[in-house]
Amino acid sequence: MKLEAYALQKILYTGEISSLTCKTAAGEITILDHHKPIISVLAPGTIAITATDGKKSYFEVKSGFLEVQAGNSVRIIADIN
Question: What is the pTM of this model?
Fold first, then answer.
């Protein structure tokens, strides 16, 4: 799936990923390929990204929004630490 993650000051991540784990207002979730569309508020915590090649990336967020769109794409707008 395609991920686009943005903060006010910079692009945090853009590219193909196999999974994304983050904390939301409803609890921790993991997004995998072909996840159902959702929009959620991000809670403070670490976002863990696994790229399709297995490389892992992490970044801390204070708040933000997560949108999983039909068509296998994910967008994050975050306030980072």
Answer: 0.91
